[in-house]
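User: Show me a protein chain along with its predicted structure.
Assistant: Here is one chain, sequence first, then structure tokens.
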Amino acid sequence: MPAPALASILAFLSAFATALPHAALAPTAGPTHPPLEVGKKPTVKPNPCWTVAPDAEATLTRGEASATVSSAGIAYGTSFRACRRFIGEIDVPADAKGPQGGLGGSTPHYTVRPGLVQSPNQATCAATRLTMDAYLEAAGSNGFVLQSKSEYVGVWDAASFVPWCVLTLVEGSTPAPQREPNSAGRETWRLLVDASRGDLQLGVTARAAFDPIYY
């Protein structure tokens, strides 16, 4: 075979071998998506836990030490519900103020905390888990804003005068640490709470309580 012809064949084979890996990795055409109209925002489905009516409501009224909402009698985790958590709302009016003076008085500050309808015993305490998301609609606003996400586990307090299961914070933060009622107007807490022990769903509570003065 003439040398020029052989050189042409070798050059063709070399170019084919170089291009082959790149051809094998070439992207394939994916599914087509309709273009987003200019100025139109994509549709986002809201979280039903933000939009449905609360399961229970309470108000931290003037002169009262606390206000509590409870899931007692509510199967909040059943499949027919849009939101599978207990939803409690607590209003804190601008003039809210706890008991004053004498034994049982309180500071101007309040704290929001979750709890259980029934306290676990020593055998079931450590397997108890509770979570709470706390949202606040501040005075003058028209929507809830996330303040904290928290997770608690049961810890048995055997040293207490009456031994009991203490819900101990293990992740996140406590909402409204030493918060005062807002003099600008009423504020509302929306509290999403759930608790379980294994596959068993537990009744929960949430409360806003003025910090007591200890003597």
